[in-house]
Amino acid sequence: MFAHLFTLIWNKKKQNLLLISEILVSFLVIFGVFSLITYDYLNYKKPMGFDYERVWVVNYSNPLETKSNDSVTLYYENLRQTLKAMPQVKEVSFTSGNFPFSNSTNATGLRHNGVVYSRINNFTVDDQYKEAINLKLLEGRWFNKLDAAAKDRPILINESLKEAVFGKEAAVGKYMNDWEEKNKLKIIGVVQDVKMKGDYTTIGNAVFNRIDSGAFHWLGNMLIKVTGDADAAFESRLYKVLAGSMKNANIEIGHLSNLRVSKNKAFLVPLIVISIVAGFLIINVALGLFGVLWYNINKRRGEIGLRRAIGASGKSVSLQLVTETMILSTLSLIIGAFFAIQFPILRVGDIDASVYLTALLLSILFIYLLVLVCSLYPGRQAAAIQPAVALHEE
Amino acid sequence: MIHLQNIEKVYRTDTIETRALNHISLDVAKGEFLSIMGPSGCGKSTLLNIMGLLDEPSGGELKIDEQKTDHLSDKELARFRNKKIGFIFQSYHLINDLKVLDNVELPLLYRSSTARERKGLAATALEKVGLSNRMKHFPTQLSGGQKQRVAIARAIVGRPEIILADEPTGNLDSAMGNEIMEILIGLNRNEGTTIVMVTHDEQMARRTHRLVRLFDGAQVG
Ligand SMILES: Nc1ncnc2c1ncn2[C@@H]1O[C@H](COP(=O)(O)OP(=O)(O)OP(=O)(O)O)[C@@H](O)[C@H]1O
Ligand SMILES: [Mg+2]
């Protein structure tokens, strides 16, 4: 029977072409959407890599006019001590503008053994940064005061960069070169990957640099880890202390947990829009499919009547039509899978092959399910056709 | 072979009730060639459909080969038709998207059989109707008479004991009609196939064993 249905489909290839291409297009759309969703979901499942609860961020404009590195450093170290003296403040850390959930990024390139690694997220932070957001150290240690006098500039790298450069080997104690190949950089530690742009995205490779003596001239952000009883009243007190200390500076206080929410929203909205658009497309395709199958059955009433006369039961007629549609979908899926499989083969977007393969599997399943659902009812209608009536019509 | 007693058929739509068959009692013996005549709309096709288990009578008793059929399920009816009955229609009812050979083997697809067996039996059936040289053609490439011969091949490929033919020559000129008639007579004579044929042609009817006339759903002679 299978070969017979295949012959029937083959002989009607012109009529079936429309249906095949319709299924093919919806498969490709679904594959795209599922790839996106799978990718985001896998990212979502990854650990955050740091804490954002009860971490406040202060944006400020540096009010000091002095050119001296020492006095600017002294000034901000004093500010840190003043803030830490407040019982609600557990830690204060100064950082470059690309703090967690900020809209700013800073990329750099590094070299190792002649290989260039570009588009590495570059964080300039202080010794307290790890404590402030509770970074997870996988190897080595975080920065400390002694690093100021180190011969080679110390850096920490994240897990992704470590794997890209050193694979399974340990990285601590090894060296990389900066972009211009001027400085040797000594790796003193490896930290877990951090999802600093929200729950649904990874940031890829990252390097952490210790602030140097002149950095306080341009650093403009503080991360403040507070205790559980830091309330709104404390926030206004904090503001007053900051304003009192930094005359004529613009000061803004935000909460990382709020920034995270808006970051996630900004990410999800386009994804949801894409999914809705794809959903409408699929509904359209489903209706189209349904219509075509319905039309085909009405056009084939004579054939159905004949099949009933020569020995087909109602069920087998219905099964035949569903099977035919499934064979058609399989043809579409074979063509579609050929295109889809190029994505993992070519590693499009440098995305893990497993993402595309999962999406491929899901899309195949989805299309089969869609086609099955769309063909069940027309199939049942076909089974209900009275053979005597259908044979009489022509 | 076919036993009908007090068979009634009433079609009901929302507004009207059509009494298509009115107390028909008829026995068709094994090996008999029976023809049915009557004016258009008198119920000939309805009667044939009931004999062929394509339609259920509204009342009365039907036995085929000594077997009552009213308790059979849809699936059992289908199997019964497949094994016992071959149908021939005025408008052939060939599947235009299948080649002649594939059309002929259709009934065998609803039995357990191998592709090789099916092709063999279909080729033999086509030989019997003289169409061995048209096996790879599509129905649209054939004349009316040839199409009907394909339909006959399809009807006999499963070796049924009964053939029900509804105006098999209705669409054909008399020469082609005669050809078809010869084939049916040969089948009846040589293979002992029981045939019930609806026709509008007195001459054709006269060549069968017995003629039943219907008028307005009732038997008149
Ligand atoms: N499905 C149906 N629903 C309602 N009435 C029907 C149906 N099928 C047949 N009839 C009616 O039953 C009567 C008998 O129809 P039938 O087709 O058996 O006639 P027939 O003798 O074969 O006619 P013809 O020589 O034109 O083929 C007709 O009056 C017809 O209108
Ligand atoms: Mg009729």
Could you give the topology of this structure?
The complex is a heterodimer of chains A (394) and B (221).
Chain A: H1 2-11, H2 13-45, E1 55-60, H3 69-84, E2 89-95, E3 107-112, E4 115-125, H4 129-133, E5 137-140, E6 153-158, H5 159-166, E7 175-178, E8 184-191, E9 206-210, E10 221-226, H6 232-245, E11 251-255, H7 256-299, H8 301-310, H9 314-340, H10 342-346, H11 353-384, H12 387-393
Parallel strand pairs in A: 4-9, 6-8
Antiparallel strand pairs in A: 1-10, 1-11, 2-10, 3-4, 3-7, 5-8, 6-9, 7-8
Chain B: E1 2-12, E2 17-28, E3 33-37, H1 44-51, E4 59-64, E5 67-68, H2 74-84, E6 85-89, H3 100-104, H4 106-109, H5 115-128, H6 144-156, E7 162-166, H7 174-191, E8 194-198, H8 202-206, E9 210-215, E10 218-219
Parallel strand pairs in B: 3-8, 3-9, 6-7, 7-8
Antiparallel strand pairs in B: 1-2, 1-4, 4-5, 9-10
Helix pairs in contact in B: 5-6, 6-7
The structure holds adenosine-5'-triphosphate and magnesium ion.
Structure described in brief:
With 394 residues, chain A is α+β, with helices and mostly antiparallel strands. Chain A has helices at residues 2-11, 13-45, 69-84, 129-133, 159-166, 232-245, 256-299, 301-310, 314-340, 342-346, 353-384, 387-393; strands at residues 55-60, 89-95, 107-112, 115-125, 137-140, 153-158, 175-178, 184-191, 206-210, 221-226, 251-255.
